[in-house]
């Protein structure tokens, strides 16, 4: 079984920074893509950033402020969030397309980590 575990969320003031990390573990053959989604109160889930499949995608709302990176050897993905704004407040979820050792490809979700930007 594959699991995704997020860390790094917290409370920060506007203009501050946070670094979110997600580690995948389990019966993994390879990871096709990893990324981050967020769910804000009263809003729909949205893609924040995703890397894999030969491309990197970043939402317009965070472009220039957030940077996504992967460490393939450690099966981790990191989201460096700078110049945070109150509208960035949300639960951030790690997501990945993973090929297991039985060659089955599935999509997985982490449990989520809260990011709150407030003065």
Low-confidence stretches: none
Q: What is the total tally of β strands?
A: 11
- Alpha carbon gyration radius: 14 Å
C-alpha termini separation: 40 Å
Write the H/E string, N to C: EEEEEEEEEEE
Tally of individual helices: 0
Short description:
The chain has 119 residues and is an all-beta fold.
Chart the SSEs and their pairings:
Elements: E1 3-7, E2 10-12, E3 18-25, E4 28-39, E5 46-52, E6 55-58, E7 66-71, E8 76-81, E9 90-100, E10 105-109, E11 113-117
Parallel strand pairs: 2-11
Antiparallel strand pairs: 1-3, 3-8, 4-5, 4-9, 5-6, 7-8, 9-10, 9-11
Can you walk through the features of this model?
With 119 residues, this protein is mainly β. It is built from no helices and eleven strands. It has strands at 3-7, 10-12, 18-25, 28-39, 46-52, 55-58, 66-71, 76-81, 90-100, 105-109, 113-117. The radius of gyration is 14 Å and the shape is elongated. The N and C termini lie far apart (40 Å). The model has no long low-confidence stretch (mean pLDDT 97).
């Amino acid at each position: 079984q594959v699991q995704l575990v997020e860390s790094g969320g917290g409370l920060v003031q506007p203009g501050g920074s946070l670094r979110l990390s997600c580690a995948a573990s389990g019966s993994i053959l390879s990871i096709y893509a990893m990324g981050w989604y967020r769910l804000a109160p009263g809003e729909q889930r949205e893609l924040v950033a995703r890397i894999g499949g030969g491309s990197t995608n970043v939402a317009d709302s965070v472009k220039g402020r957030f940077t996504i990176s992967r460490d393939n050897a450690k099966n981790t993905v990191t989201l460096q969030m700078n110049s945070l704004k109150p509208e960035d407040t949300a639960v951030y979820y790690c997501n990945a397309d993973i090929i297991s050792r039985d060659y089955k490809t599935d999509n997985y979700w982490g449990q989520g980590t809260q990011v709150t930007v407030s003065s």
